[in-house]
Amino acid sequence: MLYVVLFFTFFSLFLYVLLGGADFGAGIVELFSSRDNRKLTRDTIYKVMGPIWEANHIWLIILIVILWIAFPAYFNVIIIYLHIPLTLVLLGITMRGVAFIFRHYDAVIDASQIWYNRMFRISSLLTPIFLGMSFGALVSGEIVITNDYSQTTFAEIFISPWLNIFSVLTGLFYAALCAFLASTLLIGETSAEIRKIYSRKSAFFTIVLVLLGGAVLFYGYYTDMVFVKDFLQNTLSLLAIGISALLLIPLWTAIKKQRSVLTRIFAGAQILLVIFAAVNTHFPNLIITAGEELNMLEDIAPYSVIKVLAITLLAGGFVILPGLFHLMRSFNMIKFSMKENEEEVS
Amino acid sequence: MENLDFARLQMAFTLGFHIIFACIGMVMPFFMVVSHKKWLNTRKPHYLKLTKAWQRGVAIFFVTGAVSGTALSFELGMLWPEFMKHAGPVIGMPFSLEGAAFFVEAIALGFYLYGWKKLPETFHWITGIIIGISGVASGILVVSANAWMNSPAGFEVINGEFKNIDPVAALLNDAWFTQALHMTLAAFAATGFAVAGIHAFQILRNKKPELHKAAFKIAITFGGIGALLQPISGDLSAKDVAKRQPIKLAAMEAHYETMEKAPLYIGGIVDAEKKEVTNKIEIPGALSFLAFGDFDAEVKGLNDFPQDELPPVPIVHYAFQIMVGIGSLLMLAALIYFISLKKKKWLENRKFWWLFALISPLGFVAVEAGWVVTEVGRQPWIVYNIMKTKDAVTPMPGMEYSFYLYVSVYLILALTVAWLMNRQIKVLNRSIG
Ligand code: HDD
Ligand code: HEM
Ligand code: HEM
């Protein structure tokens, strides 16, 4: 039963990073688009993301709920020591959520659109950065767990774990990942001539992504970070990252040939591999603090709770996943062949 | 004020904000599908226009409800980490089921909003119903988690740890049914009267009377039924509180002395120092009857409880009075509406429409007041008789900044949403036909 819960934990993490990430990325792509392309990007995003917009973000809620039910001690550490960056994430989610809906459901189209757009784009960039910084903070080895607040300053406990070079780099890395995902997704959604724009964007963000990924590893290596050192010594993780890097070649070919289905599959697989590599390195010690490594599987909820949670998740999954799949299919978000897509475009 | 006070204020403020959007998100879909059904049956264009206008409303409220709810699911941990560490596994079940309900709701909403002219008509309409049902289901589930805080069940405390956890028993605690029933009715009453009032005002301004009368009728039917049932359910809640949290009951009534044939106070100014209530109307024996269904029953007074376990009595008492006062008023208004179905002449009287326009926001005032009764009445406990609120709060200092941040962001949001709604109505009135 614990495995069911663990499966859903990482499954939600993966889907949030992937779908939520593509969603954040859409705003980043819009931000980095030339003036002429912005409107186009905006409309395309609405068409692609609109129907599943809400569902994308529920993966985060599911993840949080699983954490607090099944791994309360772990959740406790995350939520106390990352209070500030997570508040900023929430602020960002709030801003871009309402901006997205306001700009499409406001009854009057006027100058206020400019504000909605600005709010949407800027929070789309900042939110994943803070989220990535939080992920980075967890493995940075900077978190100080203490009950004695007289020995340490506020900044040492609540700020420096997430506001350091390593965490900022992971934040930027995640934002680049989002932009990469979104531009890859958008390739399949537009007519042939416009596709070029997104192909170029996708290529650009791939380069940024690889550079930032390299920077994270280099920085971690030269500052002797436990996580990065272990990462670089873990064959399986390296293999996963290696495959993910190799996948760039077919990905680029697919992008060049503008094969939208294939690009998506490759991009999804890459995210899966990156997450796998990161989690695999240190599972189950996914939090690395200044003094110790915290084991996720220690101090978990009692079996009776895990069992009920697993059953709920399985039952919920049986209802939700087919529904979600049907939703995506109905609005052409999952395509089985290019042909279908071509028809829709023409 | 201390950190704890700011954490409390922030919790109260954000929940008070979320509840408004949550209520509307639960109830508006029902209005929308009724109007949609009427459009499918009659093909009168004003029903389609109304459905689309309400759909925009649902979308805007849904998202505001969803983002504030997402913030809440983090906040429970951010503000009360010790509470979540111990209680999280126990009350996890309603929250995980709630997550499933949200998901169903979000999927159905995706189909509904984007499904016009793309999906078969009946299927499209049914997805609207699913939005409503799953919204109500999530409301019921989260209230059941709150009921657990009032009436903890499904675990044992051994050496300060929560052991032998039974999540199902925790979900089905003693308070869940009365609270969930009362909350669901409250959502219908509050949203129904609010929406009806807005349309009544448009009728007064003589804008598109046909459309606004249709809208008024749909909203007030739901709201009126809720308001008629609300006092009955409130009475059940009061009897329930009398049994499980006698101290809360005494605070609601500002009842200091233990006595038989306890009187019920209407109005009154509470002096918490002198422990007395002045300027009140007294109904002899009514409190005993209200609490235990027996005019002679003994009701324990605040003076006979440990004095360090009293909630802030005046707040609880005033909030309770406000809720019950509004409850009686809304019930009367509902009666007036249902009688007007027979006496059509009333509908020509402008006073009729003014009545509904003026009481429009009261349902939500009652909702907020009711939650203050429940939550402040539980103090100083976060989990009744198990864990104190002060032992649950975050160790992080500086909560005042967090509080100010939330207040400013949410106030701006609330103003924006109000402004957007105003624009929706203007456009609706300006549209042709
Ligand atoms: C439209 C809103 C509304 C109206 C008209 C009423 N209530 Fe209410 N009441 C609520 C909205 C509400 C609420 C906000 O929804 C609460 C808070 C917690 C809950 O479950 O419901 C609540 C709580 C609440 C409680 C506390 C329950 C607890 O702590 O567990 C009692 C005893 C009552 N109500 C009693 C009444 C009575 C006797 C009413 C007579 C007319 C009444 N309510 C009208
Ligand atoms: C009495 C209190 C509450 C009621 C009746 C209620 C009800 C609802 C409803 C009906 C929705 C759907 C949104 C909509 O349709 O507009 C919603 C959203 C949400 N609520 Fe609440 N809620 C309450 C309190 C809470 C609390 C305490 C939490 C956190 C722990 C919470 C977490 C959420 C979350 C995460 C969402 C967003 C789900 C989504 O993305 O759709 N709610 N709530
Ligand atoms: C939406 C309607 C709700 C409103 C308006 C509301 C209001 C409040 C208020 C006023 C307080 C502060 C009490 C005080 O410290 O004096 C509070 C505290 C709290 N509420 Fe609620 N509440 C609502 C629903 C819920 C629900 C559904 C839950 C949980 C499932 C919840 C959980 C809490 C917690 C954990 C605290 C902090 C601890 C405490 O002060 O007891 N509330 N709420």
Automatic annotation (TrEMBL), chain A:
Localization, UniProt: Cell membrane
Keyword Cell membrane found: yes
Domain of life, source organism: Bacteria
Pfam families: Cyt_bd_oxida_II
GO biological process, one term: aerobic electron transport chain
Membrane topology: Multi-pass membrane protein
An example Gene Ontology CC term for this record: cytochrome complex
Single GO MF descriptor: electron transfer activity
Annotated TM spans: 6-32, 52-71, 77-102, 122-145, 165-187, 203-222, 234-253, 265-283, 303-328
Alphabetical UniProt keywords: Cell membrane, Membrane, Transmembrane, Transmembrane helix
InterPro entries in the record: Cyt-d_oxidase_su2 (IPR003317)
Family: Belongs to the cytochrome ubiquinol oxidase subunit 2 family.
Protein name: Cytochrome BD ubiquinol oxidase subunit II
Source organism (scientific name): Christiangramia salexigens
Automatic annotation (TrEMBL), chain B:
Gene Ontology cellular component list: cytochrome complex; plasma membrane
Positions in coiled-coil regions: none
Pfam families, A to Z: Cyt_bd_oxida_I (PF01654)
GO molecular function, one term: oxidoreductase activity, acting on diphenols and related substances as donors, oxygen as acceptor
Membrane topology (UniProt): Multi-pass membrane protein
Protein location: Cell membrane
InterPro entries according to UniProt: Cyt-d_ubiquinol_oxidase_su_1
Position of the signal peptide: none
Keyword entries, A-Z: Cell membrane, Electron transport, Heme, Iron, Membrane, Metal-binding, Transmembrane, Transmembrane helix, Transport
Residue ranges of the TM segments: 12-34, 54-74, 94-114, 126-149, 180-202, 214-232, 318-340, 352-373, 403-421
GO BP, one annotated term: aerobic electron transport chain
Stated family: Belongs to the cytochrome ubiquinol oxidase subunit 1 family.
Protein name: Cytochrome ubiquinol oxidase subunit I
Organism in which the protein naturally occurs: Christiangramia salexigens
